[in-house]
Amino acid sequence: MLRLRIIVATLSALAILLFLFFILFSIHFKSPLLPPAYTTITFQNKSSPHQQFSLLIGVLTRPDKYDRRHFLRLVYGTQSSSIAKIDVKFVFCSLTKPEQRVFIALEIVRFNDIIILNCSENMNSGKTYKYFSTLPQILSRQYNYVMKADDDVFIRLEPLALSLQPLSRFDLYYGFVIPCPSMNPFVHYMSGMGFVLSWDLVEWIGNSEIPMNHTFGPEDKMVGQWLNDGNKAKNRFSNKPVMYDYPGTNGRCSHQLIPDTVAVHRLKRWEQWLHVLNYFNVTKDIELYNIV
Ligand SMILES: *[C@@H]1O[C@H](CO)[C@@H](O)[C@H](O)[C@H]1NC(C)=O
Ligand SMILES: *[C@@H]1O[C@H](CO)[C@@H](O)[C@H](O)[C@H]1NC(C)=O
Ligand SMILES: *[C@@H]1O[C@H](CO)[C@@H](O)[C@H](O)[C@H]1NC(C)=O
Ligand SMILES: *[C@@H]1O[C@H](CO)[C@@H](O)[C@H](O)[C@H]1NC(C)=O
């Protein structure tokens, strides 16, 4: 009896292993993950005449946060913009564990929404620099704007697009200016929750020695410093009060949810996400039928 069980267990383990090897092997040639460290992004040209500009939102996250990516795909899958072409991609540094090469390969095949940068995951070690400076090299087409977003922020795409529409497509730095009470986007920097740069600034980051020489430090603060040192971003826009931290999570950066919201940050717990999704009626029009 025991021997039989051992044999069955061994056989199942073997089958699972074979299956994993099969997946790894069969995807290997289509999606060589490492090396090279970059995933090339093909820009799908589905732009309609109403779409006036394009925006890439890069959600900076870590490879192991599978559940968060799954959830954010659902959240952004319910949204679109009538005036902008918006792509949401997940951005992280090089893979470090064997299982990531399998699981993330599956995500890439299914969703094609992952950018793997040549860096190692570390807070404030230049990931944001790597992100912006790599984009011009790997994108098959440029966007008008590029955003860096956290993975604990809820962004409402249409209000975001509407707020960008009247602004400059050039030399623009947009976000939520720090410190919390400040209303002056020309002093200090935009919060890492989510800030937008026009494409020319993305290219500048990739070419200038100023960012290249200052990659270590709090990522959002560094971006503000580069732009100031380079005398860049003549056009700045701090979108308060419609960008903010979730009520009660961060002092004067927080306030109650409001209808015109562009972004709510610091969503760590499920009940916070639930509150936000309900408040903005994200699933209100989705009919749930009973299966009979
Ligand atoms: C990744 O970065 C390392 C260190 O900077 C470099 O040696 C290596 O060539 C890079 N790999 C690719 C594929 O660019
Ligand atoms: C993409 O669409 C735009 C707008 O319709 C058009 O001008 C452009 O030529 C298209 N590009 C490609 C590569 O098809
Ligand atoms: C960046 O660093 C290099 C090497 O240390 C130096 O030669 C260059 O002048 C620096 N550039 C700026 C803009 O600080
Ligand atoms: C959500 O729907 C309710 C009921 O239709 C409406 O009163 C409310 O204004 C909507 N909320 C937002 C943020 O649009």
TrEMBL record:
E.C. code: 2.4.1.-
Gene3D superfamilies in alphabetical order: 3.90.550.50
Membrane topology value: Single-pass type II membrane protein
Gene Ontology CC annotations of this record: Golgi membrane
InterPro entries xrefs: Glyco_trans_31
Annotated metabolic or biological route of this protein: Protein modification; protein glycosylation
Major site of localization recorded for this protein: Golgi
Keywords: Glycosyltransferase, Golgi apparatus, Manganese, Membrane, Signal-anchor, Transferase, Transmembrane, Transmembrane helix
Top-level taxon in the UniProt lineage: Eukaryota
Any one GO molecular-function label of the UniProt entry: hexosyltransferase activity
Family: Belongs to the glycosyltransferase 31 family.
Name listed for the protein in its UniProt record: Hexosyltransferase
Species assigned in the record: Olea europaea subsp. europaea
